[in-house]
Amino acid sequence: MSPYAGPVQDLIDELGRLPGIGPKSAQRIAFHLLKLPTPDAQRLATAITEAKARVAFCQRCFNVCEGELCDICADPRRDGNLLCVVEEARDLVAVEKTGEFKGRYHVLQGAISPIEGIGPEQLRIKELLVRLDPEGVQEVIVCTNPNIEGEATAMYLARLLDPLGCRVTRLASGLPVGGDLEYADELTLGRAIEGRRTLDAS
Amino acid sequence: MRLRSDTAVVLRTYKLGEADRIVVLLTADHGKVRAVAKGVRKTRSRFGGRLEPLTHVTVQLHEGRNLDVITQAETIDTFRTIRDDLGRLGRAVAMLEAADHLSMEGEPTPELFRMLVGALRSLGENDSALVASAFLLKALALEGFRPQVEGCVACGAIEDLVAFDAGSGGLLCRPHRRGGAISPEAITLLGDILGGRLAAALATPRGPATGEVDRVATALFEHHIERRLRSVAVLDAG
Known about the structure:
By secondary structure, chain A is α/β, with parallel strands linked by helices.
């Protein structure tokens, strides 16, 4: 028998299913929500239902969007020659925040992970291949995470795209700004040395 | 507050919370260890890059109530040649998965650890077709599940061996045959791997016989752990 009235317990159970929220946090949030004025609680409920109802995946790049195409795919000022391939929509936002990239994106919605049994067919790779020709993509920048799954995905894509005559590049590995060289791990530092560049003397 | 250090191979990692990871290590002296690496998913992390799967490391562990906490990590080998080659990476991950299934927490298995490091080094030096299967078979032998590859499991006959059955635990002669058919070349390779002529087996170029050995090793392993090896087929298809 639950010590709480039915609806309260239901609320606690639902909140407890959210990532990073344990039973105790769920209880705290539930009681906070119960104390809120009705319009505030209603606003949260509407935000959730609206987001679920209106947000879908972009037909072209599989970013989250409202409508058929996301804002980036619909924007004619974007450079169609460059295509940046990322694992998740969150990564797209991270690249977008740099302000350095003016091309379009493609969200794979995951990465190849042999250990989890996730293969290439579970990702949006077929959808990527059909985009290349019609959009006249010259260069695909593989922006997957620099971990074992991301690297496996990058190598797989390189092998797949290379014969299609499209330039495939990989995000460089290097040292974080503000980091210490002495604490850098060997793999990162090794790749940073390999990818070094000439300093302009001007 | 107790600290201990150990050398280990990182078998796999799980995300934990916002920026932490649970790292599963196969250690030389303490068997399988699950430990928390705090803050390693942030770009500024000082040892996150050393705790990726497939890295051979020395770690310092701080004993916690439930899980240990990793306080330092030094790389011994990153196996870069394996990481840069999709085919080798797939085989290495299959070995890591197998080692994860066979090892247990609090049960030191120094032989399994040595075999894993040896197999990874060998795969790093040259892309030999049979490394992963040889590792699976020898790891099973270490656990006491060595398949019978010298004669028929049913009658002991050493001639006219035509089949291999994982459930029966080895080769079978024509009258007793069960399971899948196997060629004489593959039988020789199995004998080499389990009979101390590993170098000869590893030098064999990829061919139909090595493919048969791969299938036999996977079937046998899956039969004993009673689960599927998930990493085996994933990269072969591509």
